[in-house]
Write a structure and sequence with these properties.
By secondary structure, the protein is mainly beta. The chain has no helices and 13 strands. It is rod-shaped, with a radius of gyration of 34 Å.
């Protein structure tokens, strides 16, 4: 018997058997209660690289026990401060809530957070020096091209390079 959560009335319609004709039988209905099944939903742990946006599909979770045959969870709502592309490197909670699906009203869902780890993004800086310098045993200032790939839009950064051994003559470019 698969009954929905709630109160259900059991109705006794008749009683029959040998010797019962000597009795006045009073039929009394009964009520039974079906309580929701407790199921714990745990958000999966996720890693992402700084600069990437995480959007949840609603199926990034595990259950502590299977649902009753025929019942399903179509989606779970997830929130995390680590989801935006420019979330700083570190760990953030992933908070699950509001599971929904076929038969979901028959469950008491408990929710446990997962972790989102934002990893450092690889930044490549390549200094392209001029190819026309000739060795003459003297210090010579020169200009070089700096190619940086992997910066995210609106990121604060500065570039420091030195083209000679004297740090006082280092250049900074905001």
């Amino acid at each position: 018997l698969k009954a929905q959560v709630g109160d259900h009335i059991l109705t006794l319609h008749s009683v029959s058997g040998l010797g019962l004709e000597n009795y006045q039988i009073k039929l009394i209905n009964s009520i039974f209660k079906v309580n929701p099944l407790t199921v714990t939903i745990t958000a999966n742990n996720i890693q992402k690289e700084y600069g990437s946006l995480v959007t949840f599909d609603g199926n990034e979770f595990t259950l502590d026990k299977p649902l009753i045959v025929g019942d399903t969870i179509l989606y779970v709502i997830f929130k995390s401060a680590g989801s935006p592309a420019l979330a700083s490197v570190g760990e953030y909670n992933i908070i699950p809530s509001m599971a929904y699906g076929a038969g979901s009203m028959n469950y008491d869902f408990q929710y446990l957070p997962g972790k989102m780890t934002v990893l450092k993004k690889l930044l490549k800086a390549k200094l392209i020096a001029p190819s026309y310098l000739v060795y003459n045993a003297q210090t010579k200032d020169f200009r070089a091209e700096l190619n940086i790939t992997g910066l995210e839009q609106n990121s604060d950064y500065y570039i420091r390079y030195a083209n000679n051994a004297d740090p006082a003559k280092s250049s900074y470019t905001p």
